[in-house]
Design goal:
Blueprint (H helix, E strand, L loop, with lengths): L9 E6 L2 E5 L10 E6 L2 E5 L5 H15 L8 E3 L18 E5 H7 L4 H10 L5 H9 L15 E3 L2 E6 L2 E7 L9 E5 L4 E3 L17 H13 L4 E3 L8 H23 L4 H7 L14 H13 L7 H16 L1
Parallel strand pairs: 4-5, 5-6, 6-7, 11-12
Antiparallel strand pairs: 1-2, 2-3, 3-4, 8-9, 9-10, 10-11
Helix pairs in contact: 3-4, 4-9, 5-6, 6-8, 7-8, 8-9
């Protein structure tokens, strides 16, 4: 069960050459990763938001497994967000695998853009101040980018030594190209940001039904070690709780869409109840905006800076 592993920063040995790297508190940028080793082969599930954090993780992984950064054979990026791929350059020899959709998304928000937003900060108004605040711990200036060297769609079967793995594309959901990394023999799955545990899910892409189906797929697996993209190692009850949030927000947003409320008023109006204790609850702004796009049936995407401004406003309202 999940409680076998305390939620503290660092490497967790899940057994049989499988490791999870956890970064509390699981909020903005504080993502998880994993390592799978068998014989002389290894696969890294995601890197971290900057080079320093990734090097620290790789050092701990080498101490535990004997596999150093230069000997990581494969990296799988579960999706395009920088907190899961900006450390790719720390493993210069590794093959990098991602879904085709993720590879396309990665070029849209390069680390140089994040660095610029962070430098500008308050010059961009409340949105910029919020951005600079939540991403203050991370260094986007020194990122050595490495793009995927291999892409796929659907399902990709791999082997690490004698250990069989399956990469399962379940996006679009959180992003356009979300991927699960399933290790059947060890009853383990790394979910990327299909799962935020004790943290608010963030729906950049949708549709919401795809995300709920992804949760259902995880629950149908014969697994007892579920490593989320953010938050503590969980079990199927934790997966169902994420699906509950998505269903709840979908239901509440739809009511307000049908009543004619705009995204801002709907996001401010939705009472989160038990979900309000989850970190970064202001992400309701992005989730409602994405749901409204789905309800309208169009592809009009709200500029990211506007969404950060709305999240800043909602965070202030929640704290009042």
């Amino acid at each position: 069960m999940a409680e076998r592993w305390t939620y503290a920063r660092g490497l967790k040995d899940l057994g049989h050459g499988v490791y999870a790297w956890l970064q509390p508190d699981g909020g903005w940028g504080w993502s998880n990763a994993g390592l799978i080793v068998d014989g002389d082969q290894s696969l890294l599930v995601d890197t971290l938001f900057d080079m320093r954090l990734t090097r620290d993780m790789l050092s701990a992984m080498e101490d535990a497994s004997g596999v150093g950064a230069d000997h990581i054979g494969v990296i799988v990026n579960t999706h395009a967000n920088g907190d899961h791929c900006h450390g790719n350059g720390c493993c210069p020899q590794a093959e990098i695998i991602a879904s085709e959709a993720s590879a396309r998304e990665m070029v849209e928000v390069p680390p140089a853009m994040l660095a610029q937003f962070k430098r500008m900060g308050g010059q961009l108004g409340p949105a910029g101040s919020y951005f600079a605040d939540i991403f203050a711990p991370f260094d986007f200036e020194g990122v050595e980018e490495r793009a995927p060297t291999r892409t796929f769609s659907g399902v990709l079967d791999l082997k690490v030594g004698d250990k069989a793995l399956q990469l399962i594309e379940v996006g679009p959901a959180h992003t356009e190209g979300d991927v699960l990394v399933h290790v059947p023999s060890d009853r383990t799955v790394f979910t990327g940001d299909i799962l935020f545990i004790d943290a608010t899910p963030l729906m950049w892409a949708g549709p919401v039904a795809n995300w709920i189906r992804a949760c259902d797929r995880i629950c149908s697996m014969d697994v007892d070690k579920i490593v989320p993209g953010h938050g503590p190692i969980t079990d199927k009850a934790g997966v169902r709780r994420v699906a509950d949030y998505l269903r709840y927000v979908d239901t509440e947003a739809r009511k307000r869409f049908d009543a004619g409320l705009d995204v801002r008023d709907a996001a401010l109006d939705i009472a989160l109840g038990d979900f309000s204790s989850w970190g970064d609850a202001e992400r309701i702004a992005v989730n409602v905006d994405t749901l409204y796009r789905e309800y309208r049936g169009d592809s009009v995407v709200t500029p990211v800076i506007e969404l950060f401004g709305l999240m800043a406003e909602i965070r202030d309202a929640q704290r009042a």
